[in-house]
Amino acid sequence: MASTLPMLQPTKVLAGKDYKEVLRREMDGGKIPLSLGKSCPVKCEFCYEIDHAYRETLDPPKTTDEDWKYILDYISRKPTNPLQFWCIGGNEYMEWTDLFLHPKTMEWIEDFLKYTDKNITFFTVGFVHVPKIHQLAAQYPGRINFELSAITLSQYRERLMPHAPSVKHLMKVLDGPAVSSANFYTFDDHTMSDDALAISRVNQKCVLWMGCLTPVRGIKDDTAALMRQGRRHLAGEARRIYDAGLPNIQTIHTEAPITAFLNRKRIVSAFDALELEKRDTVVMAKSAYKILNMYRKNRARYLMVPNATLGGDSDCTVLLTFDDIARCLTNQKHVYIPKAMMQSGRGPYTDIAGVTVEDFMKKTGVKARILHKIDTKFANTRLWRNGLLKNYVEDYVRNPLTQSYEDLPLPA
Ligand code: SF4
């Protein structure tokens, strides 16, 4: 029975280690692990780090000049991959925060661009120094990927992120060459669509990265309700943006059921290529379950696994954990599991919580057969490429099949 199974606990890897171990692990994963030495003070209501207890973390103290020298030296010794962008901030072994609140971050970005030949990527709700960030973007073209988490410019901004920069400041950040992509979401009528028009007025080059926010464990009920309200307005808001014909690249990426539907042909052909028997049990999250029930009913046993670890409305096969799967087992002797869910930053064949496939098999007595072709490359490259807003409007919002897809029942 699901409830009697023990929780699958990851082996602790940081116990007894000092913070340099955290820095090295993050750097080996392509991160530039600056630290504020405390939780993020911005305290956004929607922050996905509100409950990150599912993974082991150890937050380094506030980064000093000496730490920075160590980080820069360590990263400089790594080979340069022109396609790789080093990300400011660790998020596997430490807590994610807005690192532009560290007084030295702008200076250290400049160091990084000057003393290495590597590219850099960063996310912030907008705490950048405006003239400096535009100057760096102009000075080092192609080496900076700046993802601005605008979230919303609407009346909901004050409620969701009272400590974030003002809309006026955000517009100055957007007005220039620095921002590569601005992400913002729908919460109501005329939220995402008005934001798209406003952002496009000052910057026609940045990608508009849109959708809804998904409630996860730890998010307050009223915030989760606002996110769900946004989801109900997504189609209308997307249509308005579509009709506006803005010059920016426009994407909708954040809703798993939509992504799955837009990629239904690819999911079905990938499934067919696996050549599974009818009696084989295959693990998947809700959206893939719906697609396969719609197009390949009873071609295998589909074990729908809720994303219980992340909680809320999460629906993503890549972010399933072995514990989530263990809780859904009944009498299976073996199950087929997509490789994508065991390619987390915590190591090979390891889920986002740090549990390995061997741990899973040892503790449940169930043999895991790994579906190697359903990996993160498939999930990221193949499934995301239909993520343009245009595809969403033309192939989802206006598609008569969508209603029957949305109405498909899920197991209780
Ligand atoms: S700024 Fe980012 S990390 Fe900080 S609370 Fe907001 S969403 Fe979370």
Give structural notes.
The protein is of the alpha/beta class. The protein folds into two domains: 12-255, TIM Barrel (Alpha-Beta Barrel), CATH 3.20.20; 259-377, Rossmann fold (3-Layer(aba) Sandwich). The protein has helices at residues 19-28, 65-76, 105-115, 130-139, 156-160, 167-174, 192-202, 221-244, 256-262, 264-274, 286-295, 322-328, 357-364, 376-384, 389-397, 401-407, and strands spanning 31-32, 85-88, 119-124, 144-151, 181-185, 207-211, 250-252, 281-284, 301-304, 334-338, 367-371. Helix 9 (256-262) runs parallel beside helix 11 and helix 10 (264-274) packs across helix 11. The protein is globular and about 60 Å long. The structure holds iron/sulfur cluster (SF4). Iron/sulfur cluster is lined by residues 40, 42-44, 47, 49, 96-98, 125.
